Amino acid sequence: MAIRPIIKQGNSKLKEHNIEIASFGTEQLKSLVQDMIDTMRNADLIGLAAPQIAENFQVFITEPRETASRKGDQVDELRVFINPQLLELTGEEKIIYEGCGCVDNLFGPVSRKELVTIEAYDVDGNKFTMKADGILGRVMLHELDHLNGLEFTNHSPEESLVSRDDYIANIRNSEQQLKNSIISIKEYHRN
């Protein structure tokens, strides 16, 4: 498949209406999802929404992979969400610094509810419900925001943004960042 360019903040494609997928299991849909996977992994991201590669469809993927700073309880398999619907947000508000492939070299604190439940479809049209917290729940909400024309900077005041270098040196491995990234709830149910 192909590695696609990730469009940057300010590009109008990030604000356009994203249409629902009507036909599942098609070669076009499989190709789009594979391009998203290849692009996400190439850019070393843990999630990607179709609008980020200038495709205005209701599709996002997540894959918090293991890294030097992200270990076992902050890791999850590749997941594809098509036509996702937010069902529930519960729990305490938790702050995690977020970054984005569309916003080069900036990270910011974003407060979100700790537990998210989303209903969606897989590539073959099988409906499922995913409930998660930690970094997985966070990525699900972050990517869902992209489908609604939002970026993490909509939730993080400009004066609180930090450079990538500052994030890596002072925040990425902080107790709060690591604690709030732990995935303790990860429930997948086919509907």
Mean pLDDT: 94
Distance between the termini: 30 Å
How many strand segments?
Answer: 7
**CATH domain fold name:** Peptide Deformylase
Order of helices and strands: HEEEEEHEHHE
Which of globular, elongated, flat, extended, rod-shaped describes the shape?
globular
Strand content: 25-35%
Q: Are there runs of 5+ residues with pLDDT below 50, and where?
A: none
* CATH superfamily descriptor: Peptide deformylase
Number of domains: 1
Protein name: Peptide deformylase
Cofactor: Fe(2+)
Catalytic activity: N-terminal N-formyl-L-methionyl-[peptide] + H2O = N-terminal L-methionyl-[peptide] + formate
Enzyme class: hydrolase
Account of the protein in words:
With 191 residues, the chain is an alpha+beta fold. It has a single domain (12-190), classed as Peptide Deformylase, CATH 3.90.45. Helices cover 24% and strands 32% of the residues. It is built from 4 helices and 7 strands; from the N terminus they run αβββββαβααβ. It has helices at 27-42, 134-147, 164-171, 175-181, and strands at 47-49, 59-62, 79-100, 103-121, 127-132, 162-163, 186-190. Strands 1, 2, 3, 4, 5, 6 and 7 form a 7-stranded antiparallel sheet that branches. A hairpin with a 5-residue loop joins strand 4 and strand 5 (127-132). The chain is globular and about 45 Å long. The two termini are 30 Å apart. The active site is at 143.
